[in-house]
């Protein structure tokens, strides 16, 4: 017995031969059912052949019940796994994720370097074929518990249901295939069945207008679609403790931030800041915190944040963001006192809106040409509390002194903060009090003395003090 599944580029012929076999000739792929079942269940062949079962065939002939059950099983397992992977990669942002009907299909095409990726590329070039496949998956995903369909997208509105119903391989028992035989067939498949290397999930999954993916690329690869340049892309690393890369092409600029780089500094700071703030170590947690904080800052008067074009988070904790480059002058590099006052007012406004930065140093404030203050780092942001607000003041004053900023400019910043923040005196008093234990700052000892003196003098001279 054999069954034929016809696809746009080839035919898959499944036989009931007891001997595991595989052949590809004249666009006809022949494989024994037992081998296909082992691939679909245990990835015996890396799912290179089994992945075809995800693509709805144009037609089928002589399909027997066991093969139909295998197709259903493999499709359910792949859909569940792809959605569960997305949930794990972007928790707690999962309820905001929207996916196209094709997401499970394209995720597997991205993973499997073979025939499925060829079918995907062909589908993208054929509007009618893409519409046909989308309708098939719309019908399938409409029956998946935990998803809701709205305006052409599926929203993950109940992540726990997706995670709790992940498929197990016990549905179909394994066949007894010798490892040496499977390895030999796998080697042949790798040489005969080759598809394009794709990074496509980001075009099928979104949070608001930001694309998201679970396969990260090099900076040049990640920005090329957004810069749309025909020439070469130049990417330059920031300063020695920076996790950001500036990519340029024909006047266009984007920043690629790899949250996995320079993570060691947060281990040290986590120990230092423990009494006041809980620093995040995980790259994924820092990326999600920054993205969330930047969204919260959007719309605050005179505050500018970069737009996030893409987020990429993998199960291996890798986390990368592609975002706009903010033109302007870094606060640390200007001696205009009004700029420092304006930056202080901005921090006060952020605190008023319930956002603290966690790493409020003068290198993370940008004075834009439009007379706005840009925030370019919020990966350690937290909800407002007296201690987290005070920590912003502690880090700003300390790092400013470390960079040898004139104390008059630091005072102007604090004065701007006091003018705008709702309860500035409480915050400054908390900051001054906490300086009594910060003797392990990675700086020279005089910074401790100077920082506390600046705060105490400002509070003593200010009429707002009770």
Detailed description of the structure:
There is one protein chain. With 466 residues, this protein is an alpha+beta fold. It folds into three domains: 2-203, no CATH class; 211-324, Phosphorylase Kinase, domain 1 (2-Layer Sandwich); 330-461, Transferase(Phosphotransferase) domain 1 (Transferase(Phosphotransferase), domain 1, Orthogonal Bundle). The chain contains 15 helices and 21 strands. The protein has helices spanning 33-42, 65-90, 103-111, 115-124, 127-141, 159-164, 179-192, 219-227, 264-273, 283-297, 337-352, 386-402, 407-420, 424-434, 446-461; strands spanning 2-6, 11-15, 22-25, 28-32, 59-61, 97-99, 147-150, 153-156, 205-207, 210-213, 234-237, 244-249, 252-258, 303-304, 308-313, 319-324, 329-330, 355-356, 365-367, 373-375, 382-383. The strands form four sheets. The chain has a ten-stranded mixed sheet with strand order 7-8-6-9-10-15-16-13-12-11, with helices on both faces. A five-stranded mixed sheet has the order 3-4-2-1-5. A four-stranded mixed sheet has the order 14-20-19-17, covered by helices on one side. It starts with a strand and ends in a 5-residue tail after the last helix.
């Amino acid at each position: 017995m054999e069954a034929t599944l016809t696809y746009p580029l080839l035919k898959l012929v499944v036989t009931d031969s007891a001997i595991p076999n595989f052949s590809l000739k004249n666009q006809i792929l022949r494989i024994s059912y037992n081998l296909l079942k082992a691939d679909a269940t245990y990835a015996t062949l890396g799912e290179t052949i089994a992945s075809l079962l995800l693509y709805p065939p144009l037609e089928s002939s002589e399909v027997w019940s066991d093969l139909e059950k295998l197709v259903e099983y493999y499709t359910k397992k792949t859909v569940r796994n792809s959605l569960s992977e997305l949930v794990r990669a972007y928790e707690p942002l999962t309820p905001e994720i929207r996916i196209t009907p094709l997401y499970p299909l394209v995720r597997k095409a991205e993973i499997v370097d073979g025939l499925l990726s060829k079918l995907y590329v062909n589908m993208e070039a054929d509007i009618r074929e893409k519409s046909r496949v989308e309708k098939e998956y719309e019908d399938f995903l409409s029956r998946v518990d935990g998803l809701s369909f709205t305006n052409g997208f599926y929203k993950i509105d109940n992540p726990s249901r997706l995670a709790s119903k992940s498929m197990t391989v016990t549905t179909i028992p394994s066949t007894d295939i010798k490892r040496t035989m499977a390895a030999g067939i796998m080697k042949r498949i790798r040489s005969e069945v080759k598809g394009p290397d794709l990074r496509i999930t980001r075009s099928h999954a979104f949070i608001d207008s930001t694309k998201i993916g679970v396969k990260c690329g090099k900076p040049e690869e990640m920005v090329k679609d957004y810069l749309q340049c025909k020439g070469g892309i130049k990417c330059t690393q920031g300063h020695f403790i920076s996790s950001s890369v500036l990519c340029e092409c024909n006047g266009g600029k984007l920043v690629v931030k790899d949250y996995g780089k320079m993570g060691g500094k947060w281990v040290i700071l986590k120990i230092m800041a423990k009494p006041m703030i809980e620093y995040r170590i995980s790259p994924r947690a820092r990326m999600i915190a920054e993205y969330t904080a930047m969204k919260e800052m959007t719309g605050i008067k005179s505050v500018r944040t970069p737009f996030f074009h893409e987020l990429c988070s993998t199960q291996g904790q890798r986390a990368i963001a592609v975002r706009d480059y903010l033109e302007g002058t870094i606060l640390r590099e200007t001696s205009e006192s009004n700029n420092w006052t304006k930056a202080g007012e901005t921090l006060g406004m952020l605190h008023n809106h319930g956002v603290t930065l966690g790493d409020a140093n003068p290198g993370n404030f940008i004075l834009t040409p439009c007379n706005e203050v840009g925030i370019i780092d919020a990966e350690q942001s937290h909800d407002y509390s007296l201690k987290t607000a005070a920590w912003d003041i502690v880090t700003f004053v300390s790092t400013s002194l470390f960079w040898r900023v004139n104390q008059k400019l630091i005072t102007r910043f604090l004065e701007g903060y006091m003018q705008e923040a709702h309860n500035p005196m409480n915050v400054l008093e908390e900051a001054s009090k906490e300086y009594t234990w910060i003797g392990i700052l990675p700086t020279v000892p005089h910074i401790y003395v100077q920082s506390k003196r600046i705060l105490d003098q400002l509070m003593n001279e200010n009429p707002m003090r009770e």
